[in-house]
Amino acid sequence: MAILTVKKLTKSFGGLTAVSNVNMEIHQGELVGLIGPNGAGKTTLFNLLTGVYVPTSGKITLNKDGKEKSMQGLKPYTICKAGVARTFQNIRLFKELTVLDNVRIAMHQNVKYGLAASFFHLPSYVREEKKLVQESTDFLKIFKLEDKKDELAKNLSYGEQRHLEIARALATNPSLLLLDEPAAGMNPAETAQLTELIEWIRGEFNLTILLIEHDMSLVMKICERIYVLDYGTVIANGTPDEIKSNKRVIEAYLGEEASHV
Amino acid sequence: MEQLLQQIINGISLGSIYALIALGYTMVYGIIKLINFAHSDVYMIGAYIGYFCMTSLRLGFVSSLLIAMVFCTLLGVAIEKIAYKPLRNATKIAVLITAIGVSLFLEYGTMFIVGPTVRSYPAMRGIMVKTFKLANITITMQQVLIVGITVILMILLQFIVKKTRIGKAMRAVSLDQDAAMLMGVNVNTTISFTFALGSALAGAAGILVGVYYNSINPLMGTLPGLKAFIAAVFGGIGIIPGAMIGGYVIGIIEVFVSGYGNSMYRDAVVFAILILVLIVKPTGLLGKNVREKV
Amino acid sequence: MKKLFEVRGMKKLVLLLLTFVIIQLLVSFNIINAYLQATLATICINIILAVGLNLITGFTGQFSLGHAGFMSIGAYACAIITMRDATVKGFIIGVFAGALAAAVIGCLVGLPTLRLKGDYLAIATLGMSEIIRVIFLNLDITNGAAGLNGIPRFVNWFWLFIFTAGTILIISNFIRSSHGRACISIREDEIAGEAMGINTTKYKVIAFTIGAFFAGIAGALYASFFYFLKPDTFGFLKSIDVLVIVVLGGLGSISGSVISAILLALVSTILQSFSEIRMVLYALILVVIMIFRPQGLMGSKELSMAMFSKLGDKLKSRKGRV
Question: How many separate domains does chain A show?
Fold first, then answer.
């Protein structure tokens, strides 16, 4: 059952077409990869899916609990509330805030008190805040960041920051998670750890995952299907094996001569 | 009809002043993204220098104009070196407050030195009081002078920016400071030069206003400065032709509102234009849409 | 007795009461004379203005140069109401009507302009504030440029204290709530905040409206203490004044704003005798501080009991070594 359907999605910035006529279908529970050379339009596609950019044309449909919901043109926070979360290519943590705060902010939608309660710290505030701290801390435990909860996000190590970025996205309780180059800057050991983490969270949180990555070991290992983007269009789509031997893909990455080898 | 043409002529004169001041704002914003609050006070000091040249030193108009422009040039460069350069990498708010501090320093410093009272420029003589009459419309020599000098200066400016190396450097630095530096452009010199140009124009505007409107005071820069800034935003902040167009548009609108409408609301109309521009097209008439990369 | 101190917030409450009582005594015995009372009123009004602006600019990261406009709405509303109903009841209505009016305008101003960022937002707010000033300059009910005189005076230390403490408490409380954190996320990284489900436009407007509300209160207090209003009091310079207090105290630090408001008022009083050179010195101080300590006094940290105990520990360890 398709959880996300993308039809003829196009995005142009003035004269430049970054994404052109992209069709995509992601099914419940899948772990799908999105690869392609630099500048192919992968992050732009993510930005379209999460409402940061408005499509020039095309449709994005989210299928949740049997109901279809049109996503294009919606604001990012609405899309997040509909169950789509994302991480960023260049980590966008709230750097001057604590690890706990980063997660608490992501859990804002669960909070059930209004402005009046926040002005006067009414009992509902006290109660909900306590719950929120507990939930956030429990969440951090899962990602082994609990003992760093009062640390400023900017003081974490790079690997920890990447983990926090994922944790924060998950704290919004998504059904679809978009990961943008989560392994960027990681060494093989860290990448292996991340690979395990991704597989684990998929099961634990009942997620569907769409993953942009350049690290082929990661992609080929865990993705069930892969879309390949080049110059804004999908040039191939299939299982890792199919993609590995696809002529157009090799051409896109390594140039024409390589594909003739 | 005659009233209309007369108003247009008045508007063009006022617009010239706004254009001269607006150019300084737009060039500085274009090159270092700073709203130079002290710019309007450089204009004020230009007026005072002109005043002292013409009264104490008894110099003629042209010499006074040149001296005012030179003095303001030096002042503008000095301000940049002392107050803005140390804050090149600071937060926007810190630089803004510094600019405000410099502005207050100039205003109250001038007040401290020459006193807060309004001073009048000496009465003009000779060709400066000549008027022309074109079918019931009066054009004063001073108006011709203002527009003429403004046009000459703007042509000079365009020449410098488009046809000289330093002009190219200015354009490069305003597009991408780091890349320009890597290409061998001396960014510091270029920025100083930008301030120099803008301040020279402001100085010219100051003395022209002194001659035309006759009275000067230490706080005379605030309102015209604000309006000139709005003119720059209207035309597209950071875009030189935009400031020129903006200056004339604001000048003409202001004169029209004053003449045909309620002069009390004259200022409010200019501010309303600002709000409208910012809501409809913040990058201004000639501006492009800039997108943040996510 | 010790157990009583452990009740949450008890220390703060005692501190508050002590402050109130001590100053009230000083006022009653005229040690704080009429002249100093004006300074006291200015301090309190500036604290309310600064804390409100800090919420908008320091915590939510929205650059506002139009705070004086909101203040003027509160001032004129309160003045007009109390001049028609010169009772305590009228005063209270005046204060809240002024604050609400300011809040409504804040909301209306915020909605279209909060799409703008940085410098653009700053000049838009400046423009709005100037438009308000020109409107007040031209209305009959505000008596135009001549201003309003003889506004009934209700503000005394009690009211100053209530409203100042109230402002500080409410805004600190807000900051430490999830809604407050939503505002802070906007300052930190608006795009990330949106991606995490925060309706950033809504929260920007909320911050603006709250800030405007309290600016309205400050304006009302100003009107009812200094009993004379004219539109030029609430111009660009006043907005700058408040921004300077906030920046000098530290953007994002409420205690910074409080300390800064007090310090600047004291500096202003001391320099009163050097009236001409006063502004020149003030301007110089501004530039120097921005160059050498742009984060202000407190940065984005708050004054806390923990800091005092750390200081205490440091002193203790020094004593021990001697």
Answer: 2
Residues C82 and C200 in one domain: yes
Q: Neighbouring chains of A at 3+ CB pairs within 8 Å? A: B, C
H helix or E strand, kind and range, residue A13: strand A2-13
Contact B49, B41 (CB under 8 A): no
| Domain span including residue C3 | 1-32
- The answer to whether residues A6 and A221 touch, using CB atoms and an 8 Å cutoff, is no
CA distances from C156 to B132, C222, C263 (A): 64, 11, 21
Instruction: Provide the 3-class DSSP secondary structure of residue A145.
Output: coil
**Domain that residue A130 falls in:** 96-161
Q: Which of A13, A43, A88 sits opposite B291 (nearest CB)?
A: A13
Supply the mean pLDDT for chain B: 89
Q: In this structure, are C169 and C45 located in the same domain?
A: yes
C-alpha span between A81 and A176 (Å, rounded): 11
State the ipTM, two decimals: 0.91
pLDDT beneath 50, residues of chain C: 322
Helix (H/G/I), strand (E/B), else coil: A194: helix
pLDDT confidence bin for A172, thresholds 50/70/90: very high
* Nearest CB neighbour to A101, from listed C174, C179, C181: C181
C60 Cβ contact partners less than 8 Å away, ≥ 6 residues apart? C183, C184, C186, C187, C203, C204, C207
CA distance B63 to C103: 54
- Whether C96 is in a domain gets the answer yes
pTM of the model: 0.89
Judgement on whether residues A76 and A179 belong to the same structural domain of the protein: yes
Contacts of A47 in chain B (CB under 8 A): 294
- C-alpha closest to that of C95 among C155, C142, C145: C155
Q: Does B294 touch chain A (CB under 8 A)?
A: yes
Would you say residue A257 has pLDDT above 80? no
Residue A206 lies in a domain: yes
Would you list the DSSP string of B214-262? -EE-TTTTHHHHHHHHHHHHHH-TT-HHHHHHHHHHHHHHHHHHHHHS-
Residue A91 resides in a domain: no
